[in-house]
Automatic annotation (TrEMBL), chain A:
This is Iron chelate uptake ABC transporter family permease subunit. The keyword GTP-binding does not apply. GO terms for cellular component: plasma membrane. It comes from the Bacteria. InterPro entries: ABC_BtuC-like, ABC_transptr_permease_BtuC. It is found in: Cell membrane. Keywords: Cell membrane, Membrane, Transmembrane, Transmembrane helix, Transport. The chain crosses the membrane at residues 47-68, 80-100, 106-127, 139-161, 181-199, 231-258, 270-290, 296-317. GO terms for biological process: siderophore-iron import into cell. Belongs to the binding-protein-dependent transport system permease family. FecCD subfamily. It comes from Alteromonas profundi.
TrEMBL record, chain B:
Keywords: ATP-binding, Nucleotide-binding, Translocase, Transport. SUPFAM superfamilies: P-loop containing nucleoside triphosphate hydrolases (SSF52540). Residues 1-233 form the ABC transporter domain. The keyword Nucleotidyltransferase does not apply. It comes from Alteromonas profundi. InterPro entries: AAA+_ATPase, ABC_transporter-like_ATP-bd, ABC_transporter-like_CS, P-loop_NTPase. The keyword Translocase applies. This is ATP-binding cassette domain-containing protein.
């Protein structure tokens, strides 16, 4: 078992990496030859929301992935696979298509709300389905897959009935982007994400007991069912908020915790905060890649999946999963 | 003698039927019965994991459901029949998560009986069935170790001998005797009648969700009781210092 000092240095390392990446994104504007007032404006109106989006979304997706895997006792769990993301993006897609023109100005407030409702509804449906199916963790995953396939299909149908502009918007909700963020949405969703993260990290010590099964956890004083329900809700709310800012970003929740477990072990008190930092760093790298290549429209899921596929296979081969 | 459990007409739907028991503290009690007799349910009901649908369980004179879970967790521990481990948690981490001081240092008394020290760096899901079982026993005892040292623990173990090799079966049973001498109450289910006859102090026979007989080994470990419980013919012989039990054949018809 790693000692306390090893824990500390792992945390510091992850923290410094994310800090450097944040500075790297912000530095780009300041290295350019533009007037100071413009630099200030770009930093405040564009770069800081961009960085905040990458950090919050990356962190909450990675931490929720780690939480879901432990709570559902299934290494396959991920906000995308469990269906939370797809529920949120389905509602967002529908809202984008049906919101009348006069209400478009309020979309900043309507979208996050819609995403929460979508995320919570799918989580609730999946949880009820799973309870009916004898509460097994596998049933949760299977119903999640059913729900997300269905949402995907509905979004596919929506494609058929939308014009060019809506199509671009739909692609954003399906592939994710950190470039749609703005202060109004961030001010609503940001605090919610922070609360969701805080709750999950606070429960880490109880998550550790779930490795030994329900009865062992109950025996040691953990209210397993209440913890499971609250954690699912925390994930749903946090991921819903993330989708409202950045659309559906795939794979972060599956990839980050699995790779980290290879290096850090399974202590959630360490794994959850560092997953958050690494998730944030991963999306910051995506931002950096788009900033420095000038390919602003790079869909985030494309990059996370390109990086994530091989890394996950590597983690598999290292014997993390069986 | 002080009673640990007073079980009054407890039923659990489809599992237990009107079970009455008074279990004094500091005893080592073995539950014997065929598959599906309700042994696990009885242990889970005593441990406040499965609520009784009728009747009442008193633990130290207090209704079991009135105990706050954290208090209960400090002195009563339940070992369930283990399930497949999904994550490759190292044994050291696994034990530390359940240790009251978050250390993975196994008390000497446990290490002597269970010998888990050699597995610390291994993953829980790479252990063999018996090795895993020793780690699980160790985990469940470490959860309440301070109470065990005070002689105030209540230990409910569902088939702890499952998968153990002969050396560790005896190591574990000797540990049980030692724990009871300290004043702890130990209730475990078992399928090895001879071991129970010689290492248990009291025996609970169960069948079809009911307790068919309960008492000190010398009184209830009779061929008659065994035949009623297991539907097999038995021969019980008293040797100098142990009971020899032979299973002859299943009762047909």
């Amino acid at each position: 078992m790693a000692g306390k000092s090893a824990h500390k240095s792992a945390f510091l390392l992850a923290f410094s990496v994310s800090a450097v990446l944040v500075l790297a994104v912000l530095a780009r504007v300041w290295l350019q030859d533009t007037p100071l007032s413009l630099k200030q404006h770009i930093t405040l109106a564009l770069q800081i929301p961009l960085v905040l989006t990458a950090v919050l979304v990356g962190a909450v997706l990675a931490v929720s992935g780690a939480t879901l895997q432990v709570v559902l006792r299934n290494p396959l769990a991920d906000p995308g696979i469990v269906g939370i993301t797809s529920g949120a993006s389905l509602v967002a897609a529908v809202l984008l298509l049906i919101t009348p023109d006069w209400a478009k100005g309020y979309l900043h407030y309507i979208l996050p709300l819609g995403c929460f409702i979508g995320a919570l509804t799918t989580t609730f449906v999946i949880y009820r389905l799973a309870r009916t199916l004898l509460g097994s963790a596998t049933a949760v995953i299977l119903s999640g897959i059913a729900i997300s396939t269905l949402s995907g299909a509905i979004i596919g149908w929506l494609y058929l009935f939308s014009d060019a502009q809506s199509l671009r918007n739909l692609t954003f909700w399906l592939m994710g982007s950190v470039y749609q963020a703005s202060w109004p949405i961030l001010l609503v969703s940001g605090p919610i994400i922070v609360l969701s993260l805080a709750y999950q990290i606070k429960q880490a010590v109880y998550f550790n007991r779930l490795y030994a099964g329900d009865i062992a956890a109950l025996s040691s004083g953990v209210q397993v069912q209440r913890l499971t329900e609250k954690s699912l809700i925390a994930c749903a709310i946090g991921v819903g908020a993330a989708v409202s800012i950045a659309g559906a970003i795939a794979f972060v929740g599956l990839l980050v915790p699995h790779v980290l477990r290879l290096f850090l072990g399974h202590d959630n008190r360490l794994l959850l905060p560092i997953s958050g930092l690494c998730g944030a760093s991963l999306l910051l790298m995506v931002v950096l890649a788009s900033e420095y290549t000038g390919a602003i429209t790079l869909p985030v899921s494309m990059i996370t999946a390109t990086l994530g596929g091989p890394l996950l296979v590597w983690a598999l081969l290292k014997g993390q999963l069986r | 003698m002080k009673a640990t459990f007073e079980v009054d007409k407890v039923s659990v739907s489809h599992r237990l039927k009107e079970v009455d028991l008074t279990i004094p503290s500091g005893r080592c009690i073995h539950i014997l019965g065929p598959n599906g007799a309700g042994k696990s349910t009885l242990l889970n009901t005593l441990g406040a994991i499965v609520p009784a649908t009728a009747g009442q369980v008193l633990l130290n004179q207090r209704p079991i459901e009135a105990w706050p879970l954290p208090v209960l967790a400090s002195f009563r521990s339940i070992l369930a029949q283990h399930s497949e481990a999904v994550f490759s948690v190292s044994v050291a981490d696994y034990l530390s998560f359940f240790s009251h001081d978050e250390q993975s240092i196994v008390p000497t008394m446990l290490e002597k009986a269970l010998e888990v020290g050699g597995y610390f760096s291994q993953s829980i899901n790479r252990l063999s069935g018996g090795e895993r079982q020793r780690v699980e026993i160790c985990r469940s005892l470490m959860q309440v170790w301070p109470a065990i040292e005070q002689g105030e623990a209540v230990l409910l173990l569902d088939e702890p001998l499952q998968g153990l090799d002969i050396r560790h079966q005896y190591g574990f049973l000797a540990l049980c005797t030692r724990l009871c001498e300290l004043g702890n109450t130990l209730i475990l289910s078992c399928h090895d009648i001879s071991l129970s006859a010689n290492y248990g102090q009291d025996i609970i026979f169960m069948k079809h969700g009911q307790v068919t007989s309960y008492g000190a080994v010398g009184e209830v470990m009779t061929a008659q009781n065994l035949e009623n419980t297991f539907d097999c013919h038995f021969a019980v012989k008293e040797r100098d210092d142990f009971l020899e039990i032979q299973v002859c054949a299943p009762i047909v018809g």
